[in-house]
Design goal:
By secondary structure, the protein is mostly helical. About 75% of the residues lie in helices and about 0% in strands. It has one domain. The longest helix is centred in the last third of the chain and has 25 residues.
Length: about 130
């Protein structure tokens, strides 16, 4: 696949995530769809990844696999007319800015700090 085709796929994924964000706020979306949408949008707009992008291959694998799979599942849970309207809004001219989810970023930081602390305690306990 050419580089331009990949760029187009990334743009399309960003637009789809923005549409999911809009669908999450729509009252016609069922509660279980909203919960899954909140998880997906929180992760997608989080400034910090669960697996940092600096780690070769694995860093991008979570974004390239988890987000599309989550969106595919979510599309089945959200009514089609809601998704159609939200996609139209997301593709519109006012959709240039996408929000950052600092709460999700904070949660991911807490997970990383907890894992680091647990690893340090295990490492220190190993040598005692």
């Amino acid at each position: 696949m050419r580089f331009e085709a990949w760029k187009q796929k990334v743009r399309q994924l960003k637009c789809e995530i923005h549409a999911v964000c809009l669908a999450m706020r729509d009252p016609r979306t069922p509660w279980y769809g909203r919960v899954l949408a909140a998880i997906i949008v929180g992760y997608a707009f989080s400034p910090i990844d669960l697996i940092p992008d600096a780690i070769p291959i694995l860093g991008y694998l979570d974004d390239l696999v988890l987000l599309p799979l989550g969106i595919l599942l979510l599309i089945k849970l959200i009514p089609s007319e809601v998704m159609k309207e939200c996609r139209a809004k997301a593709a519109g001219p006012a959709s240039g800015r996408q929000p950052k989810n600092w709460i999700a970023g904070f949660i991911i930081i807490v997970i990383w700090v907890g894992l680091t602390a647990a690893g340090a305690f295990l490492f220190i306990g190993y040598f005692e």
